[in-house]
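Progress against Task 2.4 (sequence-to-structure conversion) is shown through the following example record, which the project officer requested during the mid-term review.
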Amino acid sequence: MRSPVEPTYITRKSLLYKTEVEYGDYCINHVLGCSHGCLYPCYAMMMAKRFGRVRSYEDWLRPKIVENSVELLCKEIHLLRNKIRSVHFCFTTDPFMYQVPEISQLTLELIRILNDEGIKCSALSKGCLPIELADLYKDNEVGITLISLNEEFRSKYEPFAAPYKERIECLRRLSNRGVKTWVSIEPYPTPNILVQDFDAILESISFTDKIVFGKLNYNPLVSKYPGYKQFYNELSNRVIAFCEKNNIEYHIKRGTISELDCSIS
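Structure tokens generated for the chain above:
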């Protein structure tokens, strides 16, 4: 069993920022690093290493909490209030990092501050979403990443994140309390990385309000799988069909569906 993660603390000069992510508006990343240690590879870790924010994978695994987050948010929210439609937690870290309660508590505090100003929030996690989210603004949307049900795969690629069943059950409890929930099936692996039952994944989250689907990027094994573009096209169509059948919203990430070369030589 892994030893408890002891976060350290840093300060920043700003917190809220406008994101270029296709389904985002404003975002907060109030932690540097992530103890989940995902190895797809993790784009956020790659960028943090590239720009010198962390020195190594081991450094990335030791989360650093922005200790002046509340102070920054209270200041910035009044400057940006008329521009913000929603705030997402988070694109470069995890807002409910598994078994790091200090981060979850801070995330809840930041969401409450935003909600008190009438700003809705969204959150995405590979941890266990706390039941306290059910007592917040009803327009909030909270989600989990779920790209498999195979625990051996999780142990290899998401080694310190919450087990899949725990993620699903935490999300289900919130859904049962009337919280808007969503699931990100991204980055989804090709069969040369893992052969799995895609329908079983969809059925396990049939209670959710929205599904986002996207391919695995930055891994050379993907393009080595014969017909990988067609593979992602077919799965995208299955997501769409499943969601339309079950009255679930969906979003297929940009670049997941490809135009296939059907020319005959």
